[in-house]
Design a protein that fits this description.
- This protein has six helices and two strands.
- The chain is mainly alpha-helical and 157 residues long.
- A two-stranded antiparallel ribbon has the order 1-2.
- Helix 5 (100-121) packs antiparallel against helix 6.
């Protein structure tokens, strides 16, 4: 089935009090990129929680296996909140749900807490290496930026 341009335009709008509100292209871009990053993060999360030693050895080496062997429950909970929020917020944003901003803020806050605690108290840089650590910091920056973006979209109505 092919859509005419008019039908395609309607597919990107949401009725709002008798008028239609368009989703701007950047909303789609930020939501898709953030969701894709968190899908990859969710895969890591599940494989690590499943104690997939081969995966951890390939990704992080023996120090990474040791690092996650005694990962505290409290940090696992914070990590879970981050991953679930990071997956849910882009979906909520695409649905133009008012909760998208709050979920994104919670995901960003949990990511920041996780980074601060693991770098300060769990020797994350040495255990996981510079590349993984810098990538994770980058994910934190993206998550904070995404939360800010969701908040701006929410405020703009």
């Amino acid at each position: 089935m092919t859509m005419t341009p008019a039908e395609g335009d309607r597919a990107l709008t949401v009725p709002e009090g008798g008028r239609e509100r368009r989703r701007p292209w950047h909303l789609w871009a930020f939501a898709v990129v953030t969701f894709a990053l968190y899908v990859g993060g969710a895969r890591d999360f599940l494989l690590i929680l499943a104690d997939d030693t081969e995966y951890m050895l390939r990704q992080f080496g023996p120090d990474g296996v040791a690092y996650f062997a005694d990962y505290p429950l409290s940090l696992r909970i914070v990590w879970t909140v981050n991953v679930v929020g990071g997956l849910a917020a882009p979906i909520l944003l695409l649905a133009l749900d008012r909760w998208a901003a709050w979920v994104a803020v919670v995901a960003a806050a949990s990511q920041l807490v996780l980074l601060m605690v693991t770098f300060a108290f769990r020797d994350r840089w040495d255990a996981l290496g510079a590349t993984t650590s810098l990538f994770d910091i980058g994910i934190g920056v993206v998550t904070v930026f995404f939360a800010w973006y969701c908040w701006r979209i929410r405020r703009s109505g």
